[in-house]
Specification:
The strands form three sheets. The protein has a seven-stranded mixed sheet, sandwiched between helices. With 400 residues, the chain is α/β, with parallel strands linked by helices. Strand 6, helix 7 and strand 7 form a beta-alpha-beta unit. It is globular, with a radius of gyration of 22 Å. The longest helix is centred in the C-terminal third of the chain and has 19 residues. It has 14 helices and 13 strands. It has two domains: 128 residues, Aspartate Aminotransferase, domain 1 (Alpha-Beta Complex); 234 residues, Type I PLP-dependent aspartate aminotransferase-like (Major domain) (Aspartate Aminotransferase, domain 2, 3-Layer(aba) Sandwich). The termini are far apart.
């Protein structure tokens, strides 16, 4: 049967108009196609370039042990689980991974979600309701923001990393009905700075608030063997809800929430992404288990990540780049306007380096940047070449 060719209806014409405005402003982005493993030098759109655009912090995404574990699990259990976790989709590998993460994070229990976004959004929206209050850093991740909105709780935003402002918000809620949740990123994904979790935890304890941290960009980066900001600040037993990811330093896919046994059992019953999404295929938890083995057995990977980070950031600053307030391997190169950031990114790609331009609404207007992330597997030679390319193109474009 032949179907007529579809065209944009009048009702959707506004989409074309919006896309045209982005093209005119120079902020329209085309997806680049990865045609190789995610490595320091990878093949995108048919050409090999230095890859500074991935979250593969420890270089585990194509590690042979993870690949072997995924293949073996697929052969043994099949390609998929066949159902959501709450029906028949909870496999022994899923439970083994949850126990492993709980032990790694020094908590009673853990639940794994299909993505880090689902973990944040599903947890916040499950824990709170319309009568409750959320005190949230203004630069928290979009998944936290969406979870806050889905919960229908009243949202109180404090200035970025401003502990005094967060305290003002909490003090104003003393005696007000409803639960209170204080939430922050552990490492902020656009700026690479570390949230003041130690001071915020003290606030939460004083005001009877639930303390929650999103450790997506801290997992595998901060703390002993990559245990995250709770370990980094020595806060074990004091942070009620810890969110992490399996999609970045762990190198695979998914998110997780750690905390008390009751918290996890509650999320098993009420977190909608957990209840209504088919569970990970066996290859995913198997590969994640292999990744945690490597993280515990090879701490030198994290040491190399930080050595590379210092080398790269010092090189950028020596050549006149502004790297904002970064304290981690996330290194923004601040350029100001979104059109400039995207043009810089395109020019870098033509010279053999992939780093993503980011502008409004992902970041505030006037604070556009090209975001770069180094990994443990970038060699000194590659990083020095990257600095040379960045500097040469930036000078040509009058960015430095």
């Amino acid at each position: 049967m032949l179907y007529p060719k579809t065209s944009m209806s009048d009702a959707l014409q506004y989409l074309t108009e919006q896309l045209d405005s982005w093209r005119k402003a120079g902020t329209f982005q085309r997806l680049r196609e990865l045609e190789s493993p995610c490595e320091p030098i990878a093949k995108f759109d048919g050409r090999e370039v230095i890859n500074l655009a991935s979250n593969n912090y420890l270089g585990l995404a194509n590690h042979p042990k993870l690949v072997e574990a995924a293949i073996e699990a697929t052969r043994r259990y099949g390609a998929g689980s066949g159902a959501v976790r709450s029906i028949s989709g909870t496999m022994s590998l899923h439970l083994e991974l949850e126990r492993r993460i709980a032990a790694f994070k020094n908590v009673e229990a853990c639940v794994v979600f299909q993505s880090g976004f689902a973990a944040n959004a599903g947890t916040v929206s499950a824990l709170l309701g319309a009568e409750d209050h959320i005190i949230s850093d203004e630069l928290n991740h979009a998944s936290i923001i969406d979870g806050c909105r889905l919960s229908r709780a009243k949202i109180h935003v404090f200035r970025h990393r401003d502990v005094a402002h967060a305290e003002e918000k909490l003090e104003a809620l003393d005696g007000v009905a409803g639960r209170k949740l204080l939430i922050t990123d552990g490492v902020f994904s656009m700026d690479g700075d570390i949230g003041p979790l130690d001071k915020l935890t003290e606030l939460a304890e004083r005001h009877g608030a639930i303390m929650m941290v999103d450790d997506a960009h801290s997992s595998g980066v901060l703390g002993r063997n990559g245990r995250g900001t709770v370990d980094h600040f020595h806060l074990h037993g004091r942070v009620d809800v810890q969110v992490g990811t399996l999609s970045k330093a762990v190198g695979v896919l998914g998110g997780y929430v750690c905390g008390s046994r009751d918290l996890i059992d509650f999320l098993y019953h009420r977190a909608r992404p957990f209840l209504f999404s088919t569970s990970h295929p066996p290859a995913v938890p198997a590969a994640c288990l292999a990744a945690f083995d490597i993280m515990e057995q090879e701490p030198e990977r994290i040491e190399q990540l930080w050595t590379n980070t210092r080398l790269f950031q010092e090189g950028l600053r020596a050549n006149g780049f502004s790297t904002g307030r970064s304290e981690t391997p996330i290194t923004p190169i601040m350029v100001g306007e979104a059109a400039t950031a995207h043009a810089f990114s395109r020019a870098l790609f033509e010279e053999g380096l992939f780093a993503t331009g980011i502008g409004f609404p992902t970041v505030a207007e006037g604070k556009a940047r090209v975001r770069t992330i180094v990994t443990a597997t970038h060699s000194r030679e590659i990083l020095e070449r990257a600095i040379e390319i960045l500097t040469r193109v930036a000078k040509r474009m009058n960015i430095v």
